[in-house]
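Troubleshooting log. The previous structure file for this entry was overwritten by mistake, so regenerating from the original sequence record. Sequence copied from the archived sheet and checked twice against the printout by T.R.
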Amino acid sequence: MIRVLVVDDQELMRVGFRMVLDASGDIEVAGEAGNGEEAVHLAEQLNPDVVLMDVRMPVLDGVEATQRIVTAGSSRVLVMTTFDLDEYVYSALQAGASGFLLKDTPPDDLVSALRSVARGDAVVSPAVTRRLLDRFVDTGRIAPRDASALDALTEREREVLAHVAKGQSNTEIARELFLSEATVKTHVGRILTKLDLRDRVQAVVLAYETGLARPGT
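Regenerated output below.
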């Protein structure tokens, strides 16, 4: 059973999420919180598999709450937002969220996303993340990081990371680099391990921050 902590400052939204998740058969709502501060405390107490986190809340917003929860290492976080180009979303991805969904996401897609996050996967496609990051690079809001952060990678791993940052799947990367999918999967795994990243979404963020990926490339 996947245990989920639902965090939203609107009670009606929390009720709706609970109804959808309770009907899934394999997801249990372990608790509910109305702001980020409550979410941090409950995540520590309940140790849910996934925290379904609103980003705009009083007392403590979802970005800071996400960072605290991810740092504690107790749970993975999936953020919910009204607008897919919300600057809060970018900040939440930087803070370690495993992805984001729009609040009007169909129920089946929400359930599928939570299952993916619980398995350790990122739910937002790198392509969607790239569109978000393109916007923030253009507005100068992405804080650059020293490219030396990538020094641990081999030349081939850098090449694979650049393709991941384009939003390409393992199949697409394999085709372009004339490699097997298994080899690409191995490279991606090594990239995540060497750079201490949770998933492909975090890899895309880092590629933009270090300048390996740029808008339109």
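The two ends are 42 Å apart (CA to CA). Archived copy saved in two places this time.
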